[in-house]
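User: Can you recover a sequence for this backbone? Please restate the input before giving your answer.

Assistant: Of course. Working from this structure:
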């Protein structure tokens, strides 16, 4: 199963550069997911590639911070603001990352597309897109 995650452009760039090795989330998928398509939110509004989920860690925000602060690509204040009022959180550990040669415009590709607030399931989008950049953890 695949999902699309909406991610702010500064974090997208950190993921593509290999500097951000985990993606923090407040909620988690109901189904087993291996491939996460990266939707770079405004102003870009494109699906830029995908990453393979190597592991999912559920823990308290404090535990997540202690375990992943060096590879999380986020400042401490922003991290704890994100998890404000949450007792549990999730960390998607990023395996291989694949950047598309040509970014996908989901508005023309997926009928009625709206950027997901959390995530949305999808089919395999890579079939018609060559890869520009690939690296593994």
């Amino acid at each position: 199963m695949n999902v699309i995650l909406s991610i702010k452009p500064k974090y997208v760039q950190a993921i593509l550069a290999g500097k951000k090795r985990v993606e923090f989330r407040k909620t988690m998928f109901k189904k087993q997911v291996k491939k996460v398509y990266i939707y770079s939110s405004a102003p870009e509004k494109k699906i830029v590639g995908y990453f393979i989920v190597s592991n999912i860690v559920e823990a308290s925000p404090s535990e997540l911070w202690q375990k992943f602060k060096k590879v999380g690509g986020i400042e401490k204040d922003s991290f704890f603001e994100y998890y404000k009022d949450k007792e549990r959180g999730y960390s998607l550990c990023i395996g291989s990352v694949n950047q598309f040669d040509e970014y996908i415009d989901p508005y023309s590709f997926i009928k009625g597309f709206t950027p997901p607030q959390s995530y949305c399931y999808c089919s395999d989008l890579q079939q018609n897109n060559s890869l520009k950049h690939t690296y593994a953890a």
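That completes the design. The chain has one domain: 2-135.
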